[in-house]
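Researcher: Sequence recovery benchmark, item below. Answer with residues only.
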């Protein structure tokens, strides 16, 4: 049985990926510092899969803690590295926190990969590496432009660190998955996106507003050059996204990669505006959302959506689930979690 280490595995994308891996008969070991997730997620994963992953509470920023973990756990076939801060707006306000956390933890892991010769690495990258692309849909060969936020910059720098590291360690391999905007939840509603404290991302803010936990959703920016003036993103169902990780891990383990550092866009190929998303949420749930239109959020770009043909060609991956399905699943998870009928 192949053994996979998932950093940030109790988090949103990590937990969904753990479920898909266990379902595909991989052995999963999770490390997380529980800064934005709860330990109960492990039992939630067990409710879906019948298996509870191994778990260690590790702060990957702490080099000694990380090194001590690897001293006794180093027989992994691959590492999937999710653990990172992820909010564009927050990163503008707290840049050092983002650079320190997202980059030091990456380097602490890579040094242990090298030390124990763990060959395969899947990295959570982001479409923010493209900044505001000149051409849409954006392909993997589009120029990497200056990032619009410290968060985006940490992903650009992280990809460069990985490239330099692999140049120096040709026996090691990596796939960076450039996510567009992950939303939705597992169909069982046992796991989902449940940020601790005030949500930064759009969909948890929507579901928490619908649940009455937040008074009002603010829609940031109405003067973008789009059909309704609100910003456009490519919203990808988290289960589709999780499945892309399984294909990436399999490709690396089977040595099917074409070079030792690969990059794939993981999105639907379709862009939706913030207002379209809000309207679809209202339609599928039958609820009315309390929202106001406000000024732009610093660090946001106007529009982006993916060209996913490379992921299809190389990984045989494409998104299957719809926006409506994703929004309904997010709401179902919020309802169950909050005890709403
Ligand atoms: N957004 C919004 N209100 C919110 C949160 C987000 O209008 O409370 C907008 C945000 O400005 C962007 C889109 O929703 O245009 C997606 O933002 P999110 O933070 O979910 O993801 P990002 O694209 O920043 O990674």
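Model:
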């Amino acid at each position: 049985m192949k053994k996979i280490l998932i950093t940030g595995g109790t988090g949103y994308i990590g937990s969904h990926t753990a479920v898909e891996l266990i379902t595909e008969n991989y052995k999963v070991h999770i490390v997380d510092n529980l800064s934005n997730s709860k330990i109960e997620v492990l039992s939630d994963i067990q409710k879906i899969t019948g298996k509870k992953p191994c778990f260690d509470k590790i702060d990957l920023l702490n080099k000694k803690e990380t090194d001590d973990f690897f001293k006794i756990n180093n027989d992994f076939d691959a590492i999937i590295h999710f653990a990172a801060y992820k909010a564009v707006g927050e990163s503008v306000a707290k840049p050092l926190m983002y650079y320190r956390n997202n980059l030091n933890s990456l380097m602490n892991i890579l040094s242990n990969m090298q030390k124990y010769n763990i060959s395969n690495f899947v990295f959570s990258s982001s479409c923010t590496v493209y900044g505001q692309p000149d051409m849409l849909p954006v392909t993997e060969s589009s120029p990497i432009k200056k990032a619009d936020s410290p968060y985006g910059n940490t992903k650009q720098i992280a990809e460069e660190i990985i490239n330099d590291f692999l140049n120096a360690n040709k026996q090691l391999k990596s796939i960076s998955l450039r996510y567009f905007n992950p939303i939705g939840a597992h169909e069982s509603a046992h796991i989902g996106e449940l940020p601790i404290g005030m949500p930064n991302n759009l969909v948890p803010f929507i579901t928490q507003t619908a649940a009455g936990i937040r008074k009002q959703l603010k829609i940031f920016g109405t003067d973008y050059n789009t059909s309704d003036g609100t910003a456009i993103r490519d919203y990808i169902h988290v289960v589709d996204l999780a499945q892309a990780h399984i294909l990436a891990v399999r490709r690396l383990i089977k040595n099917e990669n074409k070079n030792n550092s690969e990059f794939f866009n993981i999105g639907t190929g379709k862009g939706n505006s913030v207002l379209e998303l809000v309207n679809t949420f209202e339609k599928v749930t039958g609820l009315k959302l309390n929202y106001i239109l406000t000024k732009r959020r610093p660090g946001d770009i106007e529009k982006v959506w993916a060209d996913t043909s490379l992921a299809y060609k190389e990984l045989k991956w494409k998104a299957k689930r719809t926006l409506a399905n994703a929004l309904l699943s997010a709401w179902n998870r919020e309802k169950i979690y909050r005890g709403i009928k």
